[in-house]
Design a protein that fits this description.
This protein is an alpha+beta fold and 330 residues long. The chain contains 10 helices and 10 strands. The strands form 3 sheets. Strands 1-2-3-5-4 form a 5-stranded antiparallel sheet, with helices on both faces. The protein has a 3-stranded antiparallel sheet with strand order 6-8-9. The longest helix has 29 residues.
Length: 330
């Protein structure tokens, strides 16, 4: 294996392994915390074409697992009938640039979060966002290769494992939330069904293309768990949007109502998981804020970080704290 290349050198090397005699016109780094994603415009046979390359981070073993999982679920969900980007090329072993990567077809569209800001498109976008999450949760786990993701014996095993995750993060960020964790452990619901979860169902992680088809574009966080975990996460992501756009007020409650409509019954344990995921997000955001992992370009940290903290994190953290407090006193 060659030494690890960095940044745009990785991109050039990876692209050259797929496209011979092409000219790279531009390379643009996209958002994301855990990995590196780029939009690359290439010129081949006088035709310009955009592609997406995702380079996986972590130890080589961790990165390989993430790349294998994302490739597996792109292929599996496409087979089932979901819209996902087509894989053009891949290196799951990290032999070419020192890290695994996927090259995918670029999807022309807008993140659902942006579409929701347009009043005339909001209702249709929210329905697509909600309906496709319900569809994902209905995928039979018997269709999933257990060597790719962990499939729990029962829902209690899943909850207890996630409680241990809360304890680990609370230790890392040195925040004493033992009373909340104990309450969540004591009140944990029993005998729930297990589902395939998106794991990071934020409006920015799904796209509506120019034909209004919803695409899952980031699948490395897929896992098995309890559907209310995913619903609560998406609910909180929509509440974050509401914090910064008054025109979206109420969209999180509309999402919850739509989910129960498409699911066909109420989510009886939603309030429990709403608090559970609020605490998990609170601790993760604390960790990311301390490590400054939200900020890629080192040279602009001193300028941007106070603004990001003041405008986004303060409101988001206050909201999450209130969710947790409401659960405790309720």
């Amino acid at each position: 294996m060659i030494g690890m290349l960095k940044g745009k050198n990785c991109v050039r090397k990876a692209v050259s392994s797929l496209f011979k005699d092409v000219k790279i016109k531009s390379i643009k780094r996209l958002g994301g915390i855990g990995n590196e994603s780029y939009k690359v415009n290439i010129l081949s046979n006088e035709e310009e074409m955009p592609i997406c390359i995702k380079i996986f981070s972590g130890t080589l073993n961790e990165a390989k697992k993430k790349a294998i999982k994302e490739k597996y679920f792109i292929e599996k969900l496409s087979e089932i009938g979901f819209y996902v980007p087509k894989i053009l090329h891949y290196d799951l072993e990290g032999k070419l640039i020192g890290r695994p990567f996927l090259i995918k077809k670029w999807i022309e569209g807008r993140p659902v979060g942006k579409v929701l800001e347009k009043i005339e498109d909001k209702e249709e976008a929210l329905e697509a966002y909600t309906y496709n999450l319900v569809r994902l949760h209905e995928v039979p786990l018997s269709n999933i290769n257990p060597s790719i993701i962990k499939i729990y014996e029962n829902s209690e095993a899943r909850i207890l494992e996630q409680i241990e995750v809360l304890k680990i993060f609370s230790t890392l960020v040195k925040v004493d939330v033992n009373n909340v964790i104990t309450l969540l452990e004591e009140n944990r619901p029993k005998a729930l069904g297990l589902s395939l979860l998106f794991g990071d169902y934020a409006p920015e992680n799904v796209l509506l293309d120019n034909n209004k088809r919803l695409y899952f574009i980031d699948l490395e966080s897929i896992e098995v768990g309890i559907r209310e975990e995913d619903v609560a996460y998406a609910y909180h992501m929509l509440r974050f949007l509401e914090l910064f756009n008054r025109r979206l007020k109420g969209i999180s409650d509309d999402f919850l109502m739509l989910y129960e409509h498409y699911y066909g019954k109420p989510l009886s344990n939603f309030e429990y998981f709403k608090a559970f995921i609020a605490l998990k997000l609170y601790l993760i955001l604390k960790y990311l804020m301390r490590s400054r992992r939200f900020l890629r370009p080192v040279q602009v940290i001193t300028i941007i970080y106070p603004i990001i903290y003041t405008i986004f994190f303060k409101r988001a953290m206050n909201y999450l704290r209130e969710c947790i407090r409401t659960y405790i006193v309720g």
